[in-house]
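Quick one - inputs below.
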Amino acid sequence: MTVRQFKPYEGLINRVYEIFSIVDKLPERMSDEEVEGVTRLLPSDLQKTMRAFLVPRLRKSSLVFLKAIKAWLDGAHQAKREGKKVILVPFNFPPEIVYCFENAWPITSEVLSTLGVAALEGQGERYWDYAMGLGLPDFACSANMIEVGSCLTESDFAPDAVINDCFASCDINSKTHEFLARYLDIPLLFLEKTVDNTERGIRQYYRYFEALIRDLEEFLEEELDEERMREVIGYANQASELYWELWDLHRFSPCPVPNAFSLMTYGVRYTMWGTEDGVRVMRSMVETSKERLERGEYPAEEEVARSLWTYTSYYFDLAGLFNWMEENGITHLGDGLDLFFPRVIDTGSRESMLEGMAEITRNMPMTRWMGAPSMSMHWLDDLAWWARELSADCCIYCGHHSCKQTWSAVTIVRNELMKRAGIPTLVLQGDSWIRRMTPIETLQELIQEFVDNVVRRGRRRAARAR
Amino acid sequence: MEALQGRSTDIHTEYVRSWKERGGKVLGYACVATPVEIIEAAGILPYRIKAFGHPDTELGDSYLARFNCRFCRSCLQLGLDGTYDFLDGLIETNGCDHLRGMFENWQYAKKYEFFHYLKVPHFVRQDSMEYFTEELSLLKLAVEEHFGVEITDDALREAVGTMNQVQARLKDLYALREEERPRLSGAETLRVICTGSSMRAADFLSLLDRLVEEKSRDPGMEARARLLLLGSATDEVGLVAEIEDQGGLVVADALCYGSRSFWGREGESLEEPLRYLAEKYLGNLFCPRMFMEYERRRDFILDRARQARVDGAIITYNKFCDLHGVEAVSLRSDLEKNGIPVLVLEKDYGSPADAGRIRTRVQAFLERIGGRTAERVEATR
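Output:
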């Protein structure tokens, strides 16, 4: 008989779910004293995260966001209780597609890992270690391996199926999910990105997308219902419009959009896009940013740098990165995970909705760049455009060590960004979800040096030239 | 055999020099998913890119990162330092993230006039097979247009015929290797295949004919342990020789510079040669880049192990190889369930710093399986 090393209450999802029950008890508005009181009761790792989320400039939207995440976790548990299928998806698969089905609920691998890192004492390390103990390679992606490691203990809340649309854009993600499905003996549904942006390649991608929808219908024993699709996509469309409103607010200097909204935006995108909660969080972030714009609020005396993070950020110390940056005048305009190009889908017919969703899926972060005919060129084009749009003056590549595909292309991107847009890129190295690799203090030091010696000097040179 | 051994680990071989002197063109490719018959039918020499454990990567490192597979960095190094300047073009395939990065940076730095991206689906289904068949017709067209040649269906059929004979001969060679007293070593076999991947098929076939005949008369050799070697891109003849120097004999392999480059390769019907090639290549891609095919790969590997009556298996992969790094976990478990002891050897490709560590681990593994080997030898007496 197999002896389980983990008890069910030790699983990542189960622990996160229990911890998030605290969020339900928090009022929608909290005073500084209440925040102080609550955070003192929490274990140290969670305390740091909650302090990051509950700084006054974020507090209102953070509470809306955290409650919505709790509702998303509730939804997964409720789905399980009702005999519906819980489907594990990667971040680059739009969850609204799963919401279009009555009998399914999406849980997102990378978001769960992030929640574990943010909320649990000891972050996600024990799950990572468990996966390593099985022999999985130490150059795997912690964004997935933390959550997958917990699933592999077979003691945690488990998905009923896995959808993977990462092959052709991320080998390690796709192999990890394939391994998980085989290990748990659950179905793996998949969607290949044709690394081909010609009309033929796009047509082929649509064929694959339709095949996936048929596979889902068969697995869930449910045909897509046009009215339900219209409702879900209606919410997604509202969230898309709010996304672009928030985008426009980033144009102001100093930026009225708090740095952490970058994280919260894709937190919404990858979990609750297509739901009423998703719209609520997006709206709250827009309102908060507008209020800050009206009041001229910025956490530092001066906005000294406007940075784009070209792929991911770091998630093991939210206060240490997002809040620290803006408190030192460094605006985080967003990272690659924010660049999902939401669009309003025509809800006129089932076909128009399916085509719209296929196009959105084809243009999700990572899929759009690494699944393109060139790994660097599409990514580079988007970054150069983004930098121009939001008047960025520097880029930061976080150098998440397992992102081999972006590591393969970053030299070209860095060189060309400098040539085309005159924007310097700082290349860091670290693990975005595991604090062991590069401590936040080291990263802060490198960012500060870059801003002081490269960005500020560049600004001064540009001012003199004017 | 001597003729083959002499040419085996040079990049710019005498054969290639002579081919170029006669005005021949050479196209570089890296992945076994590339149907070389199309290149052959165009009268061009298909050259599979190799690095033979080349330890230097300083130029490659200025483009790729230390988190990228060192095999790709070594190949890129040789591309950038001029070693591969004899190539008249490159064919990229989406074999893995590292390989794509290698090609992209190579082309970014060198700008070949002929650079074609052959897009290979990651699964086998009716729709992906149709797409791959179209991809092959685009490759054919690109070669025709750039090199000013016509690739007729007859020429394709002829190239298929020759290549099928090569593959059949390679299986004969593998059978000699699997005998109770193997007639050639793993290092020799790897040299043969690497040599062949830098030659025109017809020339390689005549060499193979002679080799099989010569080796059939060889009395064979004994080994301390019979091994199966499997894993990621391994053209390191030195590594295999090192394993064999410790007393293990690699009698079977599932390497992409080994059996995975030619085993089980047959299409359905030659009536439509490109469709035939699509089936032959996409349908027989024993590589973890392919999805939903783990059981097929596992069975292939177990078949090789049983056929060659191995005492143990070494799974070797390059550090940062995502595809094989994850696959190794399942394969190890399945091989062990089938009574085959396994050594998982993660290594830094071509790194001299890894040599001592590898030697120690192989020695320890051979010690571990020594008892089994003695039992087997006893049983065969």
